[in-house]
Specification:
Blueprint: H1 3-8, E1 27-28, E2 40-44, H2 47-57, E3 61-65, H3 80-86, E4 91-94, H4 100-108, E5 113-116, H5 136-148, H6 163-180, H7 185-210, E6 217-220, H8 226-231, E7 235-238, H9 250-263, E8 267-270, H10 277-286, E9 289-292, H11 308-323
Parallel strand pairs: 1-3, 2-3, 2-4, 4-5, 6-7, 6-8, 8-9
Helix pairs in contact: 2-6, 6-7, 7-11
Length: 326
């Protein structure tokens, strides 16, 4: 895990998450398929983009992914073959600043339709979210780290964890598909409307499920949930400045122990495909429970759901339990 790139992406710590494939038949993990079918060929950078392409494109698209199962998206490196094949696709769908190698390859690619999800909604800086209760010194220190290690990339890219922002991106993707493949524009529009309803349902479920809770603070291994926390009135507290495999410092443990008592925190969340050592260390020392909160960078057989909606529903249940939903 590359700590520098995690900070460049605008968060305190990003944990390695293996990437899986979507469940629709239109999806293929073999990038060699791009441009070689009679369908609208779309290359997606990683799972949240892949899911959008599948849902909106339906039977008219052939979706390939640059991030294979088992690969961590932030540190993805592309082969020369993948880069060359990208130019054969009809469209590429990505999220700029999340995967530097992808950004570079797309900039050099001749693919006609380049869809940057980061331009389809408003990205925000959640760099100091995890320090809301950590004191000005920690916040200033982290801000300096972000500025020195990539200030232009300091915006948090994890917009897909907010159903409302994800829906905004979906709408923009649909419009791009309609323009690039007008013969199937009506179907893309209908598919996008169906997806919008799913995402609106998720938003409603989160609002209702997290509207009244004993606590509004949740602890995570890394700060991927800034948009979700902001949307539903929660505070995300991440174990700061640490690789997922390392142990939190005594000072950080003490700080989190105090906050857990003050804010009624019960649970430390970790990710399915990342070592739970850090979370369990903190939980043991602070007398807390542990559970999974999935940042949805991919779907694997360990995911608590078959697709984006399924995992988001599992995340909601975990949050409801941890926060003491009424």
């Amino acid at each position: 895990m590359n700590v520098r790139r995690r900070r460049i992406s605008g968060i305190a710590v990003t944990a390695a998450t293996a990437l899986g494939l979507g469940t629709l038949s239109a999806c293929s993990s073999d990038s060699s398929a791009a441009g070689n079918t009679d369908k609208f060929d779309v290359v997606a950078s990683f799972y949240p983009m892949e899911y959008l392409a599948e849902q909106i494109g339906g039977d008219h698209v052939n979706v390939t992914t640059l991030t294979e199962p088992g690969q961590e998206p932030h540190d993805l490196e592309l082969s020369a073959k993948q880069t060359a094949q990208m130019g054969e696709a009809d469209a590429v769908l990505y999220l700029k600043s999340l995967q530097p190698a992808v950004d570079e390859a797309i900039a050099q690619s001749d693919v006609k339709t380049k869809i940057d999800a980061a331009t389809l909604t408003k990205l925000e800086d959640h760099g100091n979210v995890e320090h809301d209760h950590g004191g000005e010194e920690h916040a200033d220190e982290h801000a300096e780290e972000e500025h020195s290690e990539g200030g232009e990339h300091a915006l948090d890219p994890h917009v897909w964890l907010d159903p409302v922002k994800y829906a905004e991106i979906a709408q923009g993707v649909a419009e791009s598909f309609e323009k690039a493949d007008p013969d199937h524009a009506d179907d893309y529009r209908k598919n996008a409307e169906a997806l919008a309803k799913k995402l609106a349902g998720l938003d409603t479920a989160y609002k209702e499920g997290l509207g009244k809770t004993d606590s509004k603070v949740f602890f995570t291994n890394h700060a991927a949930f800034g948009y979700l926390a902001e949307r539903y009135g929660l505070t995300q507290e991440a174990i700061n400045g640490l690789d997922p495999e390392s142990e939190p410092s005594p000072a950080r443990i003490k700080e989190l122990q105090e906050e857990a008592k003050a804010d009624g925190v019960t649970t430390v969340f970790y990710e399915t495909l990342v070592s739970d050592k850090t979370a369990k260390t903190l939980a043991k020392d602070a007398g807390l429970k542990t559970d999974v909160l999935d940042p949805l960078e991919g779907i694997t057989d360990k995911s608590k759901g078959e697709d984006y909606v399924g995992v988001m529903e599992a995340n909601l249940k975990a949050l409801e339990t941890a926060l003491g939903a009424k």
